[in-house]
Amino acid sequence: MNAEGNVDVIVRERFFPVDSCNNVFIDVGAAKPEYLSISALYRSIGWRIIAIEPNPVFCELHQEKGYEVLQYACGTRDEDNVDFIVVDSHGANYHGGQVSYESFSSLGIKESYASLKPTNLDTKTIKVNLRRLDTILENHAPDIECINILSVDVEGWELEVLRGLDIAKYRPQVMIVENLFNDKEYKLFMANNNYMLWKRLPPNDVYVNRDLIPNSLTQSYLSLKNRCRDLIPRPLTRLFLSLKLRRMYSSRSIKDQN
After folding, report:
1. What's the pTM?
2. Protein fold of 4-257
3. Domains of the chain: which residue ranges?
4. Which residues contact 236 (CB under 8 A, 6 or more apart)?
């Protein structure tokens, strides 16, 4: 099963067509090891995958398969026993599988996400350990000097995760960042760190180190294309998301009735 928007396949074909067991994929907000996973494809071709996930249920699934998983939430500071909200979607059908705790679970449900969250979902608060991504890599993977792909999917807390990483030190070649609402602040942050939006594959943005796209004409074309995409009114983006979620949870309701 491919990830949403086939982002895993598309990025591999464009930037990593040759398999290498020396490549490193950091997966922040990894959730389940296969369902909706961006890193699963890369694990299957021999990459080293470091999954980072605060939900103990998901961590156990990785451990059962013998996968490397680190049980943390990521942010801008190091702190133990931080509140983490777990949202149970009760097996809503989506993308060829069933959603359990993947949607909305986070350090706190941000306003933009709360506006999309169905009211009938159960929530509970657990305690997790919060770490900067820098701290996690220094303590658990000190041998890693560079990152080939960094994926961040943390329900609206993506920029906090990125601010906890010394980007200049690890210099990820490609960053796949969930940007559900097409927030321009993400693009600005990445541009300030010398990354260009290569492609938007909803709900993800794919950013590349500018060194991977050295041709100035190509960079200008991508910049113009992304500016044109930004002209799409944000209410239309929100409408699309609302309809998508309504279909997801209405299908679960029909199944429950049967």
Report:
1. 0.85
2. Rossmann fold (3.40.50)
3. 4-257
4. none
